[in-house]
Amino acid sequence: MKKKLTLLAACGLMAAGLAAAPANAADPGSAFTIISPAQEVLPPHPGTGAARKTSVGFRLKESASNGFVHEVTFSIDLSGLKGVADVALAKQQAGHCTLSATAVTCKENKAWYDTEIVALELTAAKDAKLGATADLTMTGTSATASYQSATTRLKIGGADLVMEDAGLKKEMVPGRTQALPLVFSNKGTEAVPGVSLRLRSTRGIGFVERYDNCTYSSVPGDYVTCAIEGEIKPGATYETVEPTTVKAGSNGLFEWLDYAVVERDTGAKPAGASGASATGKKLTIRERAAKASARSVVELNPADNSRELAIRVQNTADLAATPISLKGKKGEKVKADVKVRNNGPAGVNLRPEADEVTVDIRVPAGAKVTRVPMECNASNPDGSYRSELLGAPRYECPLRGTYENFEASFVFDMTIEEVVQDATGWVGYGLPGAKGVSAPAWDPKKDNNTAAFVINAKDGGSTPTPTPTPTTTATPAPTGSATPSATPSPSATASGGLAVTGSSAGPLMIGGAALVAVGGALVLAFRRRAAGRA
């Protein structure tokens, strides 16, 4: 439930003198809108065994209304589903909904906006004919509010575009190419008038060819959308006639590639697309000879429209920490600008399963941290969690990835509580560990992953070598997760030597949040805590 509604409702009651309206009541005339998918297709019943389920949810749309109702009854008439679809309540329903042969009824004591009312599991009836339709309409009834109904049209059968696995190699060498054969099928029951082929990659992988019926962009990876005309028949398999090739760039390391087929979008070009190229060549398809299939059940499943692949480019990236030297008198406030840099040649677009890299800061003696960057967490000297954010002896700032030749900066506010001559801490950039960071196997320079952090150096400003020294680790094991991004401070950019191509006309998932790391230039894992954040 939305906490802001509680506060707003409370304020409304106070303004009215806590008088007439009962607690938890909506303002008279409050209007709510029920929403649901406009259409859902159901796979035909296989004839024997269980039909595949399709979930349909009804919810309240977020509204400008500040109130909520005390009691409301939601109803769905199921009489029109006879002979078309069978319905069941989803298992997660909390018991406020009941199902009969003719209706679904849900009673709510408090109906908040932007919450799900009910989820239904639907299957095609055993004797339902292909193309048969039925409507699911939900209405709401309340003494204190009105509800706009919602209708979802159900249809038996439809197209089911399936992209086949291209069998690509998972490892590449910078500058090398490999063919990307695009083969897809329509395993549904209806034809499609045309399709779009969508190719998408992270920065270290590019697409070589350019075709007039494709649009391209690079923001910052390669995005290609190719419009293919002509009927895609049910049960048929198609392949591209012209070559499609991927190339590993000099900036490649941990990369992602996504290729998909979707029903053709005749609308606007993808955002940022450079438009069709003028090569005189078009990407076309041809139908493959039919093959015997052991599948007896037609699937209508959008999850198999795309394929994705993690590609490891045999390359290196030099992660480097920058030394820090500060001066200050007792009671003086200072700022520590912690900087780390990826010197390349590869960008570090870490995939979700790749090891996380982090910035590890050890605070010199005599200084107390009074303000902490939002991306950073406090810890004890042994690396264990510390609940108190300010004044910690150690901070860790997870830094999932950076472009090649990019620098990231974390500014800490500190107070000199005691003047300690040559007070020395350090900054590290690499794989995290209790004793400090270590250099990844793909980092060729092991001596610059750590740098000294000195306050009031004896010799007037030089920074001695820090006590910890980086150690080489084995090839990173699959762990970690991608998280929200922060803005780096760029000092240079590198093109990677690839043909700049491609754009997707719509959202495509590439390794979940892995593309967030690519699009944001660097990705940070962090835990938000309000006090003392920069």
Structure notes:
By secondary structure, this protein is mainly beta. It contains 2 helices and 37 strands. It has helices spanning 3-15, 514-520, and strands at residues 30-35, 39-42, 54-60, 72-77, 85-89, 97-99, 103-108, 116-124, 133-141, 145-148, 150-156, 161-163, 171-172, 177-179, 183-186, 192-201, 205-207, 214-218, 222-232, 237-240, 245-248, 254-263, 285-287, 306-313, 317-321, 324-326, 333-345, 348-349, 358-362, 367-371, 377-379, 394-398, 401-402, 406-416, 423-430, 450-455, 489-490. A 6-stranded mixed sheet has the order 2-11-9-4-7-6, with no helix packed on it. The protein has a 6-stranded mixed sheet with strand order 13-24-22-16-19-18, with no helix packed on it. The longest helix has 13 residues, at 3-15. The protein starts with a helix and ends in a 14-residue tail after the last helix.
Strand content: 35-45%
The largest sheet, given as strand count, sense and whether it forms a barrel, is:
6 strands, mixed
Note the gap between the termini. Answer: 30 Å
Overall pLDDT level = 78
Can you count the beta strands? 37
Cα shape: flat
What structural class do you assign from the helix and strand content?
mainly beta
As a percent range, the share of helical residues equals: under 10%
Stretches where pLDDT is under 50 for at least 5 consecutive residues are 1-26, 267-273, 292-299, 461-531
Q: Which strand order does the major sheet show? A: 2-11-9-4-7-6
How many DSSP H or I helices? 2
Radius of gyration: 29 Å
